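The protein record quoted in full:

***
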Amino acid sequence: MVKSQLLVVALDQQGNLLDATRVQLPRLLDHLYTRGSNDADESSLGVHYQGNQVTASVWAPTASEVTIKTYNSVKHELTSQPMTVNTDTGIWSYSVDKSAVDRLYYRYQLTVFHPLTNKIETLESTDPYSVGLSTNGQYSQFVNLTDEDLKPQGWDNHVVPTVSNPEDSIIYEGHIRDFSILDQSTSMENRGKYLAFTEKNSAPMQHLQQLQAAGLTHFHILPANDIASVEEDLTKRVDLTDTVEKLCQLNADAPVCGVESNDTILLDVLSNYDPKTTEAQALVDAMRRFDGFNWGYDPQHFAAPEGSYASNADGVSRIIEMRAMNQAIHETGLRVVLDVVYNHAASSGLYDNSVLDKVVPGYYHRLNEKSGAIETSTCCENTATEHRMMAKLMNDSLVSFAQHFGFDSFRFDLMGHIPKQAIIDAREAVRTVDADTYFYGEGWNFGEVANNRRFEQASQLNMAGSGIGTFSDRQRDAVRSAALFNSGGSLDDQDTIRIGLVGNVSRYKFVAASGSYLSTYDYQWNGQPAGYSSAPADTVNYVSKHDNETLWDQLQYNLAAEMSLADKVRIQNIALSLPLLSQGIPFLQMGSDLILSLIHISEPTRQEAIS
């Protein structure tokens, strides 16, 4: 029944149709295929190597037919083989001799009913469990992650730094591309790439080493699993370091076309614009669909490294070089955090970047109970980690990134959209391969899951006592308001800063500005308890990260214009010191210690401020 359109109908006593509605299948599929102790959610999915045999397995219980197609390095089809289904698990499998497929590419062809079109579709998809990919993730690759030629020299025995207690951690958030993309001390070929981290004498790596010597313990990188929105084919991408001519070849409507010289570097064009005009915004907007910059919060494949950071996006370079990056950071004395995004996917339906919704239509995404439409409260197509096989995909990919790529901790985007138990289960799964992993994330409470409407969320108040950290917006907002630094500033904000200094521990009591003696839990902040944690490890304290304005820029909006540069720098230092001096885990944005600004600030002024 689940392999076709399934409806519930209401009839009157005469058999006349009164109403009809489509059945949403996820809970039924979980009941059919995951309720046992040895069924789909205990099975191995993706590509599995055993001896000379390779088995490809994909969970597609609603498909009536699945075929696996193999391709050579130039993506010419070589074979097309039917897969065999296990009706107890809904898993389709195909086994073949390793010599016939190793390092080749593959795709699945599925015949399946899709609710987007309300008909049986024959469509192709990559593997949701891909660990290796072609350029732009268009093909999955047969890869054995234990192969010796995929390991940097010394990989198996390199030393991973340890932290005795989570509360001893100090985390520095950065972006792989931003770390080196404009750095002149990094070799040209490695700028913006994984391998930039292997150049230990470069200015960025020297800076990391200095921070580590001062007490930094973790380097947090923004999402680095396969990103849908970054063009990995360099012939179709334009960056700030490219010329006007290259941009105009891709976008003839760009405002520089026919205005600037073809051989002018785009960064130089931007630098010459008057910041009081909108010329810079217009140029950046013209590059938006073509450049290589993206934070990475639009996942296409959850278990494969991103290709735009590799020297070659086609094939195994992304695997080798992500490992080399982590090994180099470890050798600097730092642990590595991977930012992960399991609350939404980049696409759904039959569209180009859709993967999950092609393989099991209507299952992996959270649907509105009434309309059946995919919920989009997180900005994109929300995924449903309350469904067993989506939770399994999260767990399996996290374990792989810890075991095979050397990530020591994980930060969860919009963690409040994930069930609390799913996050705890994921941590326990990772602990089987990395006993001292640390999990933390955004425990915001909003959207269709708000206030535990669909499940107990991994939100701030719910995660207290779990040892899984959540970002504190209490101290963040109070510091960024500049209440500490302006005469007549908010005493309530100063109370919130004090609460942050004790790690938001809910049982702590103090005398508030109002004169009341009360616990931090009873102190109200935007209708919520200001103090919500049970222990310092529950709280990640920060005043600046990739979201919104940098700390320096935000403070400028709230400080007196006539304030001296020296005083503004002192304020920046005090603001940054508050997370460091608070109980809990300090979290800093890369560059905030160097007065990172994304608004116009002259280089002499910036250097004066730093000195």
Remarks:
- The mean pLDDT is 96.
- The radius of gyration is 26 Å.
